Amino acid sequence: MKKLVIFDLDGTLLNTIADLAASTNHALAANGYPTHPTEEYRFFVGNGINKLFERALPEGEKTEANVLKIRQRFIPYYDVHCADLTKPYPGIPELLKALQQREIQLAVASNKYQRATGKLIPYFFPDIHFTAILGQREGVPRKPDPQIVHEIMRMANVSTDEVLYVGDSNVDMQTANNARVDSVGVTWGFRPRAELEQGSPFAIIDKAEELLSFL
Length: 215
Known about the structure:
two-stranded antiparallel ribbon; DNA polymerase, domain 1; Rossmann fold; about 220 residues; alpha/beta; single chain; 2 domains
């Protein structure tokens, strides 16, 4: 029986791509670099914002110094505009309520930086209790390193067979595999089904409510 469900954030709980794209484009333009269509950002995100900026920078400009320049412009802008166009995916609020009613613990494990992660989840899901809301933090390796999952499991006091990890990308499937917990891939996010299949998830779902059958 599953006692804890850990969710990825971007592309799983919330469709954040428009605000991520707008904020990155703002930072790129401010530094004199070309911008990208929103759709391209679906393949830029997933490994933390520094990797996002590296992927968005032009060839020959992908230096650590330039990444930090984009970061300096991005963070204050995104902190203000992170919820302008972002919204939960269909069925997610109802799914979280159903899980909470079943007394299953909920948590978030994201590669989004901690301040934004900690702001967006309570903003969009104010009536849901999360055992942990963890994003990217200084000194903690990013997913697919399993450390964030292990940290949440200790907080929830559960074992690996009592955990279900839910995400939309190969990073998420690798994270679950590395943590030795069951994974469920979701097709409504940023990456295609074929990418999820490569990660050998326990299941792949097309609608949020389908998750309830795997508990």
